[in-house]
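Long-time lurker, first post. I've been practising inverse folding by hand and with some scripts of my own, and I keep getting stuck on stretches where the structure tokens seem ambiguous. Below is the full token string for one chain I'm working on. Before anyone asks, I'm not after the true native sequence, just a reasonable design that respects the backbone. If someone could post their per-position residues I'd love to compare against what I wrote down in my notebook.
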């Protein structure tokens, strides 16, 4: 197969970025697990939504997580507060915070009245959740099932927004771990590209590994692949020394390029790697007869054959 040095260097760099991204993502997931960040984010939201002038955030959190439905979720999570709460559990636990004991409703009318009493209870009425649920209750047309459905939909919308808060936290951790990886491994894109271009043997070995990359690769596999025998020059002990003011001056530029590449994430680099490998091997195949091109190498066959030439 004909060799294209520039393309092979791009493939080797994409493979390296792919494995570094996997390691950064795995480190972020490990940090999130040990710090219980998802559960803490949810807990802070619950405290803010169920507290008022009479009830502190700590007391609101304690009361909510002490309800039977939420306590059961904590037990199933290994005695840790849950990272996720089903919408039905949240609405039930919130209404259960009402101070007055409510007997089980036997009719739809009684169920509707019970919900109204619970929402107007001082423990709920003046909270952010109460402010959100009361308008839903008023427009539900005395239909308890409709109220619960719309209340649960409101909670799901809030959880979508809360997921955005967690994703922003997660992205910051990915950036931090990316910086640590780049500096610890001396992952200088400029130096790697130069070394790969001038070392065909090393470049060919790395390119051969590209076909084995999968999206399900784990962090330990990525670390084993990032070995000095068949990857671009990484680390400070070997190939990592800098001599001369010019190489020292441009080193931060190479680190920044690597960091920016890692921040794009493993899925991006896997997709890029697949496209580069396809170009290197056979190129993009032409679309089949009666098919429409949808992307790089992807096509969708039309359901109906084209009309005969000249047909109206």
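-- Answer (accepted) --
I ran through it position by position. Result:
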């Amino acid at each position: 197969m004909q060799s294209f040095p520039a393309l092979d260097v791009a493939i080797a760099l994409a493979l390296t970025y792919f494995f570094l991204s996997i390691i950064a993502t795995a480190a972020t997931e490990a940090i999130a697990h040990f710090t219980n960040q998802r559960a803490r984010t949810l807990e802070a939201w619950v405290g803010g939504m169920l507290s008022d002038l009479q009830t502190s955030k700590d007391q609101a959190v304690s009361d909510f997580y002490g309800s039977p439905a939420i306590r059961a979720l904590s037990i199933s999570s290994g005695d840790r507060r849950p990272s996720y709460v089903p919408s039905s559990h949240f609405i039930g636990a919130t209404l259960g915070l009402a101070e007055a004991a409510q007997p089980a409703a036997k009719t739809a009318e009684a169920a509707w009245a019970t919900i109204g009493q619970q929402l107007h209870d001082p423990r709920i009425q003046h909270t952010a959740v109460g402010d959100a649920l009361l308008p839903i209750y008023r427009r539900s047309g005395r239909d308890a099932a409709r109220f619960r459905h719309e209340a649960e939909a409101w909670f799901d919308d809030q959880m979508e927004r809360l997921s955005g808060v967690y994703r922003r936290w997660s992205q910051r951790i990915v950036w931090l771990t990316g910086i640590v990886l780049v500096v610890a491994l001396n992952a200088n894109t400029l130096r790697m590209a130069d070394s790969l271009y001038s070392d065909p043997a090393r470049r060919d070995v790395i390119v051969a590994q590209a076909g084995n990359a999968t999206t399900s690769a784990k962090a330990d596999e990525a670390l084993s692949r990032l070995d000095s025998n068949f990857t671009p020059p990484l680390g400070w002990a070997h190939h990592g020394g800098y001599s001369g003011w010019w190489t020292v001056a441009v080193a931060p530029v190479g680190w920044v390029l690597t960091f920016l590449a890692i921040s794009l994430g493993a899925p991006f680099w896997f997709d890029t790697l697949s496209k580069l490998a396809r170009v290197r091997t056979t190129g993009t195949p032409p679309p089949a007869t009666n098919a429409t091109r949808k992307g790089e190498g992807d096509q969708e066959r039309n359901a109906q054959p084209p009309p005969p030439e000249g047909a109206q």
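A couple of notes from the structure itself: The radius of gyration is 29 Å. Residues 104 and 236 are 70 Å apart (CA to CA). Happy to go over any region you disagree with.
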